[in-house]
Fold each of these.
Amino acid sequence: MKKLISFASFLLFSVTPALYAQPLPLPDSVAKPEKFVTKHSIKIDGKLINYTATAGTIVIKNEKEESVAVIGYTAYTKDAETDITKRPVTFAYNGGPGSSSMWLHLGVIGPRRIVVNDPGLNGPPPYKLEDNNYSILDVSDIVLIDPVGTGFSHATGKSKNTDFWGVDQDIKSVSQLIKQYIMDNERWNSPKYLLGESYGTFRSAGVADYLSQNMGIAVNGVVLVSSVLDIRSLAFLPGDDLSYIVNLPTYAATSWFHNKLANKPADLYAFLKEVRNFAGGEYAAALIKGDQLPAAEKEQVLNKLAGYTGLSKDYLDKANLRVLQPQFSKELLRNDRTDIGRLDARYKGISQDLLGEYAFSDPADNAISPAFISTFMNYYTTELKVNKEKTYNTAAYAFPDFKWDWKHQRGNGLFGDAATPNTGPDLANAMSLNPQLKILVLNGLFDLATPFYGTEYTFDHLGLDKKLKNNITMKYYEAGHMMYISNTAAAAFKKDVAAFIADGIKQ
């Protein structure tokens, strides 16, 4: 029998094998920053923008002024800006943990964008790269960061990559990179934004707090793309029903999309409001009763679950009302010999295991990863003129010693690091210390990796002062985890983020 994947690997942004080579640690005297600088131009909404692209590395040091890591980044800065105090800079990264920034880079943030067939197959090359009209370069400079183990980033001196592979270690090193970039490029007085995706949102909460508490840097805003701050909401822990509750509305949205509902509602958003009410009410109340749930009440909940999810009553009964995400992804279209995507449940793939209980392969990841990886590697060495002899790691997952340290002190409860990690308290602290800090949360309705109701639950349980709740804006797209691969969602993404940055400057 196949073993269910651990919650750590379950969270990973992508499971595609990385292109990697283990860089040898550099002596302290050899670790030096590098830059590959090119000039470009682009039209965004008809307006010509001349810009400089810098693919480079920054050396970060410890308290003894010893070099501990070389961290890579790609910066896009608008040329001829006379007053950079009025020009925002956005620091962006993907998640994993263990993913490079390649996805946001070519998906929506950078000035060039890969064209993918959404939601469908992309197949082998050639792939198309075009000017990105959805880039935020017209409203903000952009710095895309590759954490240690990804991109060109690696430990140096006496350090090892494993020294940086952990919640708190990662927060610190990314914060150090941001501070050093600000120092090197004299951006202390520029408006500053963080934009993270998936685990990158988990990171952003910690970075926003760390920058404020340890480096005296207050950020203007944080954009959370496909957010997860509380790992408990994704973990499906034994005896803990939260994950089942917060996943249910996304199960319902997925069944709606694939026409598996007996009486499909016309209005998706009204339908999901109804499912939320059931999930947080009658369903949650039934689950909390455990094996004390009366038979009549269980029958009533079973009927509603079947109606909302498209799964059979018999299957739901055997599951004891509790269906794991990979079970749902396998079962919904089982009779069609099809698995559905985790990153994006609109995607479908051929099922290789018709008797299997879990969908281990992700059709969404399979459909887009080769296109992104091939196009990015070609773009980096041709258009950005990066030395072909340098190895860019699209992800850290293939390193034999890659393992994440999930301990996070601020998120600990009464039993210390026995708790699942949570950077919600970090974000709440950052917002309390800086009441002008604004948060934009972007959700994909068909995202089974970081379900939107889980995000809503987390924000409803931050314990924020009521006045600070007005600083949080939620947006929703009819797409998945990487909502921006949809042209319609990408246009909305750009509009929402650009407006958020502009509003932050006015405050």
Amino acid sequence: MKVLTVVGARPQFIKAAPLSRALRAAGIQEYLLHTGQHYDYGMSQVFFEELGLPQADINLNVRSGNHGQQTGQMLIEIEKVLETEQPDWVVVFGDTNSTLAGALAAVKLHIPVAHIEAGLRSFNRQMPEEHNRVLTDHCADLLFCPTSTAVENLRREGLTEGIHLVGDPMYDAVLLFSQVAAQKSTILETLGLGKGGYLLATIHRAYNTDNPQALAALLAALQSLEETVILPVHPRTRKKIADFGLLDARKPGNLRLVEPLSYLDMLIMEQNARLILIDSGGVQKEAYFFAVPCLTLRPETEWVETLADGWNTVVGLDAATIRRHVRDVPRPSTPPRPVFGDGNAAGRIVDICRQQFEQSSPSLR
């Protein structure tokens, strides 16, 4: 059995790490295809090094571009690889352009598709990610859901076949790498920070970064906070800040812009923050795993489970609302609920894919 795994962006490298381990442990051949959607060292190569991912068998080096150009180029190049490699399954993760391109290329060549993190819905069609999720789910043969909410979302759309509730590979990764991060990361010392002595923020969603009014409002809100705010800056976000002429370097307030953090450094920063303010889906979950309160800088979240008991609060872009929640947010009295699985999602995914392959290949029975 041969699996071709498509990755291209930071969250996909994280989810691919436990899956790749599980595939190797099961003796299954994996061909790793990197689209090059994220290509800076701090957004790509460092994750391969830290997570023990095998180097990609091929890197398409597609890089940046508008959505149509980027997705189209990926689709063309992935199709060529699939025709050469002839995998038994194509595995895609999440909701990026790499996800959609991988799924479409496989479907058109009649190669079965497994979608990991299936069934997520923000119900915000302004998000490119929402379209990628929906289209990929309706292409896929196996839909690996992280939560029961995701399963129900699929059923409401009429999808009932190939659905499996397996848990979240990102939780697998946190369990695998948190201890390694504690041993290796020196990020708190490097930035001169102590436990609970700062807020951690991220801004990278296209509808926040591509809209100058939205991006300006978020930066102004973060600058106005009375505590130190650490903002690791996504390369696209940094470019938009420069293009729009935002942030007066003479009046930084308590906002500190830093380069993108490695996965291990980010885990330590999340664990030790007093509060996390983000528009990222993955960091919402990691905050929840670490029992650190989170404010989501968007009008909605696809990870509705994190809202339980106040661990995550959707606050939008209004500066006054953000300041009020930063000042007044109580620490929930109830621990986060174990809704993202038991840390063995990758093992379940591998077992199900192999079972499906053997059932479709009579000679292997």
Amino acid sequence: MERLDSLFQRLEQYYPDMVRLRRELHMYPELSFQEVNTPKKIAEFHKQLGLEVRTAVGGRGVVATLRGGKPGPTVALRADFDALPIQDEKEVEYKSRIPGVMHACGHDIHTATLIGVARVLSEVKDQLQGNIVFIHQFAEEVFPGGAKPMIEDGCLDGVDFIYGYHVWSDIPFGEIGLAEGYMMAAVDDFILTIKGKGGHGATPHVTIDPIVVGSQVVVNLQQVVSRQVDPLKPAVLTVGSFVSGNAFNVIPGTAQLKGTTRSFDEDVRESLGNSMQQIILATCIASGAIADIKFMKGYPAVHNHAEETKRIEKLAVPILGAHKVKQMTPIMAGEDFSYYLQKVPGTFFFVGGGNPELDAVYPHHHAKFDVDERAMLIGGKVFLSVVADHLL
């Protein structure tokens, strides 16, 4: 039977190819729901490995299945492959060639990792006691996301366990972060249009100023988290956009506010929307303005299964050392990996990619975002370890 260290050696052998693939994806990124060439390339790689490949899963997803030589459980590994509408400002040879689009979150890293892992495992498939499903997901960055339609299209059919990772620039290279239970937040957005009565800036008494009303709304909304949410239950309410008017001496007729809420507990998630609606309506009514509120429910919270998180922790220690495998505090970013975890046991973990020596110090979604590419070896070895733990 194949030894784990032998699988690791194979992955290290293929690491230069993984880097080349990652950089090619980085140079030619594609936006969420607009992925055309990326899924074609992914599907071709898996077909060359002799795997069963489904394309256009849930829209633009790719699912490749490796069937082992013996019966056993089915383990799924997931990577995403969409990019962001950001101009790449890095000065590197693999800088994005597509104006205004870049991989500013590491999805190219995830994709290259998963293909490298598939290459290794395809060489020992006869020894596997079970099957592996490689899920390549489109559109993680933009709600409604790709996970849900891919699940509805059968990507988890017959799957017993699922695992995924995200490279993370805030974590130093050589470490991984784990969390049992809540790992990432539920994400909901809102758009508020305040309809007032416009007029001349010199005669405000005959207008209903939506800028003043909107300002009061922003201030009053600060009471939601500070006074209406249990302080032991995390929540965030952020107004990220306030747009109204464009002249010095004109009071506009409308103002538009956009924002987001983040939470873990479903009761808190529900109460945030209810409290916001009450405050917004009351503030607008008091000023004679009209409120048009649109709430958009996004991804649920990522809730890791305890047993599978402990499994990853146990398997990561021999790779990195116990002091490099860390329990982390949940973060308020969102991820539609949550939908997979609602269906089957699994866990989602972070692999450190930060390295000041490589200028890999910028946060995700930054124009100079980059990571230490060796994170692919760590993520890949953890994936190989969990597959071996189940199937070898």
Amino acid sequence: MVEIHEGWFEDTLGRISPTAQFCLAHLDADTYSSTKTALRYLLPRLVPGGAVVLDDCLFYGAIGVLQAAEEEIGKDLHLHLGPKTQAFAFPKGDPQPGRRAPIWRTLGGRRYDVADLLARPDYIELVAWEGAIYRNRAEGYHDYLQLISGRPDLPPDSHRVTAGIGLLRRR
């Protein structure tokens, strides 16, 4: 059973049955206080083997998500790096006792297990493809800056500036 509760955590959590239990919680909190509020409510109701997904916890604009998770779950929190800027954890035990051995990577002084991601070659290919797209868009913005600054050193194919910006607007 899935229920989506749109709104601020402090406003919506009280509407959930006090006897509710969770096997999966996808927290898209983006801030320290929201993450802390959600985890304080969620953790006592999380079933053994239940997962918590911290959406955007590695995104530069999401302030304090990891700090709140470490304070509520513990400093020794085993975070599995998920797609893009997500991470997930099993605060009450991993339901897969035979999970691959961790492969640790460090980012910003924090260790992440990337074993699940590295087991998916299609994911590595996707990230490489997206990286190429973002590099191309960054070049387009450089050319755009040149254009609006009146600098004469625009490349001959500078027409790609408007095409790249149009792509960004549609997303």
